[in-house]
Amino acid sequence: MNTAIGILETKGLVGLVEATDAMAKAANVKILKRVSIGNAFVATIVQGDVGSVRAAVEAGANAAQQVGELVASHVIPRPAETLVAAFLA
Fold this sequence. Notes:
Elements: E1 3-11, H1 13-26, E2 30-38, E3 41-49, H2 50-67, E4 69-77, H3 81-88
Antiparallel strand pairs: 1-3, 1-4, 2-3
């Protein structure tokens, strides 16, 4: 299966909640985890097929910019199993 993970980071929880909602509505992705980084930085990680993850991350980034501060977004196509196990366990 051609899976990917997408990561979206914001400064502040409100922007992340809005972004996560937009990602879930935009494409068929699974929300895997919310990560509290510290100093108000938070991230959401989603998983799905590459096209869906790209669409979801783009929609989430746009939503985050509307209500908060988008820090970064990234899509990793076909991540190594050890990467997923290390960061999402």
